[in-house]
From TrEMBL:
Gene: cobS
UniProt-recorded name of the protein: Adenosylcobinamide-GDP ribazoletransferase
Family: Belongs to the CobS family.
HAMAP family: CobS
Gene Ontology cellular component terms for the protein in this record: plasma membrane
Length: 252
């Protein structure tokens, strides 16, 4: 496991569009360092939470637009492309090889349009719901959802597998099952940074279930993980975590 700044730079390069300079060996260092996933989640979480911290000053509909804009300004849309490719692959009436071909295809089909629309709408409606919360509560949910989603990706990298070559093989082949221990410890610190604890727990569970669901779908229908699946898990986990947190805030 690489604990260098190279690994962290590589993680920021893969997970965000922040202007952080990259070096030639950053990618290789990142591949063997799943602990960087949740650590980047802390930074991304606070940055994308800025709009929901303004709930006392902006109308709810503006928050609903500003929150997704903040997410994609910080993280880029390349992970959303994974949602599109997954959507197209899952609507294919064919065998495993045909679904894989569609997953790698650059053509945009109805499955892509529908899946991306659902995810973006889910994020916007999540922002709308967050606007009804106290600003710090809303920001806490956003932060926990982001960290937990990145933890889910770290678990996928440490425990997942794939049957074909590509980015998925690179991400899952660099570390073994024990690699998941440090990411869990890094993410556990979010308990002390969010409030209240039970809402944070439900938010984290929702995000992890979202990434886990994506992982399950890929394992059953696509032969394992790919770069597109990691991207889709990132997007689906975030939406699931936000909505789980808002529901918990209403009920608890």
């Amino acid at each position: 496991m690489d604990l260098s700044t190279n690994a962290l730079r590589g993680a920021f390069g893969f997970l965000t569009r922040l202007p952080i300079s990259q070096q030639a060996d950053d990618w290789e260092a990142f591949l063997s360092s799943p602990w960087t996933f949740p650590l980047v989640g802390y930074v991304v979480g606070w940055l994308v939470a800025i709009p929901v911290l303004l709930t006392d000053y902006l109308p709810a509909t503006t928050i609903a637009i500003a929150y997704p804009l903040a997410v994609y300004a910080v993280t880029g849309i390349h992970h959303l492309d994974g949602v599109a490719d997954l959507g197209d692959a899952l609507v294919v009436h064919g065998d495993l090889e045909q679904r894989r071909e569609v997953l790698a295809d650059t053509t945009t089909g109805v499955g892509a349009i529908l899946s991306v629309s659902i995810v973006v709408a889910g994020l916007a409606f999540g922002g709308l719901a967050l606007a009804d919360l106290r600003a710090l509560d809303a920001a806490g949910i956003v932060l926990v959802a982001e960290i937990s989603t990145k933890l889910g990706m770290a678990v996928m990298a440490s425990l997942g597998s794939t049957e074909y070559e590509g980015m998925g093989a690179a991400l899952t082949g660099a570390v073994g099952p024990l690699g998941v221990a440090v990411p869990i410890l890094v993410a556990a610190a979010m308990v002390g940074l969010t409030w209240p604890t039970q809402i944070a727990a439900v938010t984290a569970a929702g995000a992890l279930l979202g990434t886990g669901f994506t992982w399950l779908i890929a394992s059953r229908h696509l032969g394992g993980l790919s770069g597109d699946i990691f991207g889709a898990a990132n997007e689906i986990g975030r939406v699931a975590g936000i909505h789980a947190g808002v529901i918990a805030w209403m009920l608890l």
